Amino acid sequence: MKKIIKKWLEKLEKANKESFGSGPLDCCELAHKAGPVNTNKKTSKSN
After folding, report:
1. pTM of the full predicted structure?
2. Under DSSP, is residue 10 helix (H, G, I), strand (E, B) or coil?
3. What is the CA angle 4-5-10, rounded to 5?
């Protein structure tokens, strides 16, 4: 079981490095890489 988890974590780390690079990330960097985000919330009416 430990080997399966270890392999999964290695694959996850590799995918993250390919997507985001190997440098430290913060929320601002992620926002710039992701592009514009719609932050408007739709409010629903509750009776």
Report:
1. 0.42
2. helix
3. 100
